[in-house]
Amino acid sequence: MLDTNKLEMLYGETEMSSKRYNDLKAKFEAKYYHKDGEFFSSPGRTEIIGNHVDHNGGRVIGSSISLDTIAIAKPNNTNVIHIQSDGYKEIIVDLDDLKQYKTGRGTAALTAGMCEATKLNRFVVKGFDACLTSNVISSAGVSSSASYAMVIMSIINYFFNGEKMTVSDYAKIGQYAENNYWFKASGMLDQMACAIGGPVLLDFKDPKDPKYEKLDFSFDDMGYQLFIINTGESHADLNAEYSSIPNEMKDAAKVLGVDRLCDSDFDTLLSKLNDITSDRAKLRAIHYYKEVERVDMVAKAIEDKEYEKIIDLIDASARSSFEQLENCYCNNSPAEQKVALALALIRNFIDHHGKGVCRVHGGGFKGTVTCLIAKEHKDEFIEYMAQYFDRSFIYPMSIRKYGAIHI
Question: Residue 144's pLDDT is what?
Answer without folding.
Answer: 79
